Amino acid sequence: TVRVEDDRTGLDIETLKRAFLDNLFYIQGKFPEIATQNDYYMALAYTVRDRLFRRWLNTAETYSKQGARTVCYLSAEFLMGPHLGNNLINLGIFDTVKQAMTELGLDLDELFEKEEEPGLGNGGLGRLAACYLDSLASLETPSIGYGIRYEFGIFDQDIKDGWQVEVTDKWLRFGNPWEVARPEWEVEVKFGGHTQAFTDEHGNYRVLWVPDKVVRGVPYDTPISGYKVNSCNTLRLWAAEATDSFDFDAFNAGDYSGAVFKKMESETISKVLYPNDNMTQGKILRLEQQFFFVSCSLQDMFRILKRQNIAIERFHEKFTIQLNDTHPTIAVAELMRLLMDEYGMEWDKAWSIVTSTFAYTNHTLLPEALERWPISLFGSMLPRHLEIIYEINRHFLDDIRIKFPDDLDRLSRMSLIDESGERYVRMAHLACVGSHAINGVAALHTKLLKQDVLHDFAEMYPEKFVNVTNGVTPRRFVALSNPRLTRLITSKIGGNWIKHLDDLRQLEKYVDDTGFCSEFRTIKHEIKQDLSNYIKGLYDINVDPNSLFDIQSKRIHEYKRQHLNALHIVTLYNRIKANPDIDITPRTFLFGGKAAPGYYMAKLIIKLINSIADVVNRDPDVRDRLKVLFMKDYSVKFAQRVYPAADLSEQISTAGKEASGTGNMKFAMNGALTIGTLDGANVEILEEVGAENFFLFGLTAEEVSQKKAAGYNPQDFYSTDPELKLVIDRISSGFFSHGDTELFKPLIDDLMYHDQYLLFADYRSYIDCQDRVGLTYRDQDLWTRMTLLNTARTGKFSSDRSIQDYIDNIWHTKPVSIDLKE
Ligand code: 26Q
Questions:
Q1: Strand locations in 602-690, DSSP E?
Q2: What's the pLDDT at 249?
Q3: What would the 3-class secondary structure string for 675-705 be?
Q4: How far is ligand 1, taken at its centre, from the CA of residue 474, in Å?
Q5: How remote is the CA of residue 275 from the centroid of ligand 1, in Å?
Q6: Is 486 inside a domain boundary?
Q7: Ligand 1, from 75, 122, 125, 636: best to mutate by most atoms within 8 Å of Cβ?
């Protein structure tokens, strides 16, 4: 009996090997001799999962027994990245497992490559949710992540003839060892139909919602381990399935194909992730997805309340719900509906519970990303919720009238309903009214929210607004992704920094230690060599690890200005063409990121980068001093290779447009220097690392608004800066497009006649700053000193700090420590 327990939980090498071979035999059904790498990966994943189960079950039981206050993080996206390596780090068994695999003749890194990552998110917002789950568990905070189990996550990106091509992401093809289906906790979600008022047996006015469609939600749970603690929380993702009753009715009526069609239609709801980042699309299916996972999650919370014998009136004491942007905001109306229509609560009581429960995080200032739903669409899908929203609005507009009498403009600006043309529900307004806390994701972003986008709300409810600057988990983005740096740091200051990232400050005392600095530099060089080899294998391109690795990886978007980076490359190329013997710092320009499939300009930017690469990489005059590469299919897995290899991190969005950025933090932690504008969290990174260790350029957010107000004309810059003119003329002339002058015309014309994101205004400042970067890189001692200080001073950007801010200022939860005994 001891033996059996041991095989599922033991952490020593011999037990791990035995357990691994056992899983290979009994789960994969293979002898080692004929097993594939995938079989080995699966056997190892199950071996690790086994070691999470005692923690996971004890955690759930402890929370349940204590009725612990729980954070529910509602998010349409969770961009988790591969689970295996992360769980090895958190369980503290990375080295042991590596050794065990080696002894079995296997390479752990090759097994990692076999894991299909769950790409259930677009970019920053989805990855942030994943970092937060890691920190919540590491801080022993009871929490559940609620979202959608998309069958197809973010598309895989291929590049053909320089253009992006989208390929379906079939991540579940080989099975998912990390999830457990919990069909016994399925719920039903209603759609469409109409409402009926009636009077109940106590004479109260009640409403009945008669839907015309009912869909089942089935939860799939994934364990979320904390770093070196026993806590193991849950990510609960909902999959949509057809209800049997619908099949059955239609089938009995002889309509077989109708029944099958209904089934298919129901299952579409969780079929695919919308691949837009920072851009809304008013599609019915998207609203169905949002309501689907929100309703499932809230019903799940009511089930938990019941099981733990907690009164409905105490909902807000048991749960605090964080809305990750407006995507889950229909929850405000759905919780009202559940409390009133299903549990018979009166309005005022229900409203007080709702506003005590919700808190809202805003992630964007871009007007095109603010969610609005046409009333007609909304009302036909969610008739009861529209009534509730009208009623919330009635109360809300009364409150405004009291606080700001006779201000009709304000009423129409703030109303939950946009009535300026076609009528819309404004989701951000609903989120603000229904929440007790509203936060931006970086200091500048919160300031601009209060100043512009949510100005009226900040006047009405100043006490609701807080800032919580984003953070990233140092477990995945340093300990796992950068083992060499991790070893070096730990050898000097011990391993506490992985939990308390502020401890990295202790590295500052080594800035003048030449031995340490040279180790720091050597590590960066080795990692660059690794990435070069990887690139050689994938693209058959030679990149020189001695060159400056200048990297921009993030979603492709005009506001992020990948094309400004491209203008810099062409500038350097032009200088070489004008003077082939010019002395320039050799650079490797690496890009990574996906464009939304319907975003034409973003796709054209990818084509432009690839076209420039084709010319620059092959021109003998360049003599390999410049290399340009667009790395396809950027993902979390690939990001983990990229951050540690960077010398220079490109964070060059137009000031006031990037809410925070989180890649900026991952680069800086790994000892890259930032070239950036005063935008998002760049402002705070500069503040932490010191201006002397940061390459700052460009207009400030305030100067951007002023410039636009004063009537910005990009051609003023084109005609007065000969270097800019030459760059634009070269691209227009077809130099990078085999003589085709039409190809990049939409992009060039947009810059010449609109330039919404002020590339031309920032061009000179950017180029001059890049020249300073190139010169600084030549002084390797100085460069290394700067990078070391970057790593040492990025403690603030741990997601542990962000989560502690949420706990202290918004959630007010208490840690619950978990016993490992049975
Ligand atoms: C909305 C409606 C319909 C379809 C899609 C969407 C949608 C999907 C994803 C809208 C926005 C997103 C993603 C936004 C996002 O990732 N924002 C980023 O959030 C990061 C974390 O806070 C910040 O660091 C980035 O600055 C911000 O751009």
A1: 626-631, 648-651, 673-676
A2: 65
A3: EECCCCCHHHHHHHHCHHHCEECCCCHHHHH
A4: 22
A5: 10
A6: no
A7: 125
Residue nearest atom 11 of ligand 1, based on CA coordinates: 278
- Work out which ligand 1 atom sits closest to the CA atom of 659: 26
ipTM, two decimals: 0.98
Which region holds residue 705: left if phi is over 0, alpha if psi is between -120 and 50, else beta?
A: alpha
| CB count in 10 Å sphere of residue 10 | 16
Which of 468, 501, 531 terminates a domain? The answer is 468
Same domain, 233 and 340: yes
Kindly report, residue by residue over 144-194, the tens digit of the pLDDT: 999 999 999 999 999 999 999 999 999 999 999 999 999 999 999 999 999
- Identify whether residues 22 and 76 lie together within a single domain: no
Among residues 469, 458, 388, 383, the alpha carbon closest in space to that of 430 is found at: 388
- Do the domain assignments include residue 497? no
Cα(145)–Cα(640) distance, rounded to whole angstroms? 23
pLDDT beyond 70 at 5: no
**CA separation, residue 75 to residues 146, 324, 361, 414, 462 (Å):** 6, 5, 11, 25, 25
> What is the per-residue pLDDT for 1?
47
Pair (623, 759) in one structural domain: yes
Mean pLDDT of 226-243: 97
> Residue 245's pLDDT is what?
63
458 pLDDT exceeds 90?
A: yes
> Ligand 1: which atom is nearest the Cα of residue 361?
22
Task: Tell how far CA 617 is from the center of its chain.
Answer: 33
Let me know if residue 48 belongs to a domain. yes
123 CA: nearest ligand 1 atom:
16
Tally the domains of the chain. Answer: 3
Q: Whose CA is nearest to atom 3 of ligand 1?
A: 280
User: Is 650 touching ligand 1 by the criterion CB < 6 Å?
Assistant: no
Q: How far apart are CA 528 and CA 544, in angstroms?
A: 9
**Residue 3 pLDDT exceeds 60:** no
3-state helix, strand, coil in the chain (%, to 5): 55, 15, 30
- Does residue 2 register a pLDDT over 70? no
Percent share of the chain, pLDDT over 70: 99
Kindly report the backbone phi and psi dihedral angles of residue 176, in degrees, each rounded to the nearest multiple of 5, phi listed first. -125, 100
Same domain, 156 and 278: yes
Instruction: Give the whole-angstrom CA distance, residue 547 versus residue 624.
Output: 10
Please tell me whether residues 434 and 322 are part of one structural domain: yes
Residues in the chain: 822
pLDDT digits over 398-446, tens only?
999 999 999 999 999 999 999 999 999 999 999 999 999 999 999 999 9
Domain that holds residue 5: 1-66+86-106
Amino acid 465 reads F
Q: Which two tokens stand for residue 816?
A: 């619950």
Both 235 and 315 in one domain: the answer is: yes
Q: Are residues 37 and 133 in the same domain?
A: no
Residues 56 and 188 in one domain: no
Catalytic residues: 363, 554-555, 560, 662, 666
- Res 755 pLDDT > 90: yes
Taking residues 265-286, what's their average pLDDT? 92
Complete DSSP assignment for 552-609: EES---GGGTHHHHHHHHHHHHHHHHH-TT-----EEEEEE-PPPTT-HHHHHHHHHH
* CA 484 / ligand 1 centre spacing (Å): 33
Token pair recorded at residue 127: 């990855």
Sort strands 156-160 and 673-676 into parallel, antiparallel or unpaired: unpaired
Ligand 1 site, residue 470, Cβ cutoff 6 A: yes
| Alpha-carbon torsion, ordered 292, 346, 411, 361, to 10 deg | -40
Residue where a domain stops, chosen among 468, 502, 532: 468
d(CA 510, CA 784): 11
- 126 Cα nearest atom in ligand 1: 16
Report yes or no: 656 and 631 within 8 Å, Cβ to Cβ: no
Measured CA to CA in angstroms, residue 443 lies from 123, 664, 702 at distances of 21, 15, 15
Residues 779 and 774: their CA atoms lie apart, in Å, by: 9
- Check if 290 has its Cβ closer than 6 Å to any atom of ligand 1: no
Determine, yes or no, domain membership for 702.
yes
